[in-house]
Design goal:
By secondary structure, the protein is α+β, with helices and mostly antiparallel strands. The chain has a single domain (25-159), classed as Pnp Oxidase, Chain A, CATH 2.30.110.10. It has 4 helices and 12 strands; from the N terminus they run αβββββαβααββββββ. The protein has helices at 10-20, 64-72, 85-94, 100-103; strands at 24-25, 27-31, 38-42, 45-50, 53-60, 74-79, 108-109, 116-117, 122-134, 137-149, 155-160, 163-168. A hairpin with a 2-residue loop joins strand 11 (155-160) and strand 12 (163-168).
Amino acid sequence: MAEDLTRLTSTQRMFRDAMANLSAGVNIVTTDGPGGLAGITVSAVCSVTDAPPTMLVCVNRSSRSHDIFRENRHVCINVLGPGHEDVAMAFAGRVPSEERFTATGDVWDHSHEAPVLRGSAASILGRVTGSVERGSHTVMFVEADQVIVGEDCGGGLVYFRRGFHSVPTPLTA
């Protein structure tokens, strides 16, 4: 169902254009449990504090995954690296929700409480410990239970000007 952009105010349209100029890390948030298996591509993710280690994830309430995240409570924030563009697009909606994990191949480790993307820059497994609704989205606070850092990820993946861009790992002397 396409969004009717003609209903946006000029401020909303300008805000969207401004946010297109805000570089953001690309992540796939996943879950599995009583509510089902789900995952979506999310750029609105950031750290909150390290005591206790907590991140926030903004999820559109109209997303099929939204209620599944809330019901399962356990999620994994998979921080994407270069070469993950196709997986990001699949989880952004190019592939139907129920086919995303199988369509992206054998890149998922299902041995944790939520699927972990093999080869990601980092994966933060945790619990949704609180949330706040604002406009069309829910801000979910995720307290980390386990952190996996990808040593050989080759850099990061950001979303800027409505496209993916690789950020290489800096060379060290």
